[in-house]
Design goal:
homodimer, alpha+beta, Phosphorylase Kinase, domain 1, Aminoglycoside 3'-phosphotransferase, Chain: A, domain 2, five-stranded antiparallel sheet, three-stranded antiparallel sheet, 12 strands, globular, Methylthioribose_kinase (chains A, B), ATP binding (chains A, B)
């Protein structure tokens, strides 16, 4: 990549709100889609995540979403971040398009100079995290996200295609290093050491933060899964599939923001989603709502976790059972007779159990990093009383510690659903929570 | 890569024996090394492996080795094979140069048009396989190869360096698909199915070949390790490290032929080496030598297997313990106090146990493919009597089956050393060998 003197790729510049109409006017296909001309278009800045600029543009005939990778972390301008990440978000969308249908926004245009993606404007969708905080019942979110992950990961794994296709992808996505470094540091390393970027509720969570830094069992488990992230090219994963990466209505669901895409363990995606449902469950305990509403919504969340896993598992198995082209993992001529077919069923269950074990671990890692770490989540930030917030966070950390250090206690999703309410008794003293 | 009309890269042509002097004359650095001019040089065709052309060139001042990737399998001209494999052999040599010292031949010149590598001429080295067949005592071969593998793999793993460096390498080596396809098919898939390429001693080994095709336990284990090969980017591995890829004298050892290089499980390299020592042990049982010599040499081989593993393990642990820069797997600030240091020692033992488990499995896979598969080995081919040959092969298959399907019986190298003589009782009936 050629770099101009400012260290950005040649020709790159940050688009401002006022630049957007002229920029769009240079892309004929998008002009046609909006209708009219620049003077007829309205532009809204809707950036919500930590990293990028996002604008919604509306014209007489329709609307689009314009997302530009900024050369720094949007919420932290003196933290530089390579704009090339947009290449990988684009590649992720293109690679998955044949498999995920309308599970992601439609891609209209990619600009490899300004690192801008123009895509379908999702309306009246909201970010799932916002819906969860508001206590909305969004019945499609969990099963649709599960289906998306199953479609995306099965079809890019060694179960679905010859390895050459996967290795071509690996050669590409292995270059997504700026964002993989963020996952490595912020998600998989920082919460267990002292580092300037870490944030947590002070002073209430000091005890938990200190216990994370000194807990050798925990850090051993963390390191094991960090190695898994670095060495296991199981499938093309989203890499950041929390409830802020899912846009929903009551009957439609889209997964967005694939810029962290890499070949890695499938459980990182399933775990990220479950982690954010679990944290929502704990956060709701501190929301100022009528008790009956709160109880009903928490029951709904637990149900969504169950539905999410069951849907993912069923969809993944169905894709495998119906695959017409076998991947290199299990050649078509290996398990053809009756005994072979029975064995293949066992192999499939074992494979899904392996994904589940990773799901448990990565769910835990994703909870920890949202509570002891740089990127906090709105589910907790909306709880203004710090002690109340901390008391809604501690149970997530206590559960996460158990998920990582006692994985044998969590062999299926039912064990996790049982544990979530039980761990609510965990408080600000990490040692006192060890009996849960 | 631009392709000319014949399907080869632009400018590529196969060099013949008579082309070599003129070719070398065009590379000034090599001319200086040989001394004199083309008329003073002698060229010997010494191709020995299955894939490439290899010439030794001698001049008044010195000699070099010229290796050219041919656009087909050298021993099977109508089997096309991408010449680009030389890129990866070259990249492997360059990448490992800082770590393996004189464990590999010195690289002099790489030609990316003719896919030719000019390197150090190894003299009076012989191929280790030849030395083993002749019953030579080569005391450095096993420990030096172990040291080479430890140096190469530790330093390219997540234990030694930040992941960015590894992922850059992965992006490159993930393109070595033509040769990875050979490993996938010939080593990891074919021996357990019917395919035209398979060769074995007929009719004597028909029973074993049939049992491999119908053995569901075996094929389940094989598939598990095939997935490991496809998904575990543990370190940069040689990928074909059998006794034909090691050149030795009594006091020097060089690993050659890194064209199968990829990021994969370290146990594939350690396992390949051990497999070839085990097969040599069994083959010696059928060689026409005095019984006392044979017994002494077999004891020497068992000793080399023990030395190989102990040296690899010690070297790998020493590198880890003394690493000044920690890789991303275990950050330097994670295990610093007394309890942490004790835990790190346990983690290291567990890591080596993991490599050992892979070693056991890949050793088995490598034995199977040399007996039921395309590429047979000279250790067995020199046994002219087919039944005698088959009876020296059956024990290797019986042991391999146990290594793959009963890995819990082989927790350390001593268990393998015990098993090798015990499995010699296996014969041509695969079922009768199940009790061993």
């Amino acid at each position: 990549m050629d770099k101009a003197q400012d260290g950005h790729p040649e020709g790159y510049r940050v688009l401002t709100h006022d630049d957007i109409p002229a920029y769009i006017a240079g892309v004929p296909a998008i002009v046609a889609q909006l209708g009219g001309g620049p003077a007829d278009w309205t532009v809204r800045d809707v950036a919500d995540g930590n990293l990028n600029a996002v604008y919604l543009v509306d014209g007489p005939a329709g609307g689009v979403c314009v997302k530009q990778a900024l050369p720094y972390v949007r919420v932290h301008h003196d933290w530089p971040l390579a704009v090339e990440r947009a290449l990988f978000e684009h590649a992720y969308m293109v690679r998955l398009d044949p498999f995920v249908g309308r599970g992601a926004p439609q891609l209209y245009h990619f600009d490899p100079t300004l690192f801008t993606i123009v895509m379908e404007k999702l309306e009246p969708h909201i970010i799932l995290r916002k819906g969860l905080i508001e206590g909305r019942h969004l019945p499609k979110a969990a099963p649709d996200t599960a289906t998306f992950i199953a479609n995306a990961t099965f079809n890019t794994s060694d179960l679905a295609a010859p390895f050459e296709r996967k290795f071509e992808d690996i050669a590409h996505f292995a270059r997504n290093q700026a964002l993989l470094r963020i996952t490595m540091d912020l998600v998989l390393t920082d919460p267990y050491r002292e580092v300037w970027r870490n944030r947590y509720v002070r002073p209430h969570m000091e005890g938990w933060a200190a216990s994370f830094r000194s807990d050798i069992e925990l850090k051993t488990a963390v390191a094991r899964h960090r190695i898994g992230f670095l060495t296991n090219t199981q499938a093309l994963i989203h890499g950041d599939l929390h409830s802020g990466s899912v846009m929903v209505t009551e009957d439609d669901t889209r997964v967005i923001d694939g810029e962290f895409a890499s070949y890695g363990p499938i459980g990182l995606d399933t775990g990220a989603f479950i982690a954010n449902l679990i944290m929502s469950w704990y956060a709701h305990g501190a929301y100022d709502r009528p008790e009956a509403d709160r109880r009903a919504y928490r029951d709904w969340i637990l149900e969504q976790i169950a539905i999410f896993w069951a849907t993912f598992r069923d969809r993944f198995l169905t894709l495998w059972e119906n695959a017409t082209e076998a991947g290199d993992a299990y050649p078509a001529d290996y398990f053809t007779d009756t005994a072979g077919k029975a064995r293949l069923a066992t192999i499939r269950r074992d494979y899904l159990d392996g994904i589940f074990a990773d799901t448990v671990a990565f769910a835990a890692l994703k909870m920890n990093r949202r509570i002891i770490g740089y990127a906090q989540i709105a589910d907790y930030l909306v709880i203004e009383d710090l002690e109340r917030r901390a008391r809604a966070q501690a149970p997530a950390l206590a559960l996460a510690r158990a998920l990582l250090t006692r994985p044998e206690r969590f062999a299926d999703i039912a064990a996790i659903l049982d544990a979530i309410p039980r761990f609510e008794r965990a408080g600000l003293d990490p040692d006192a929570a060890r009996h849960l």
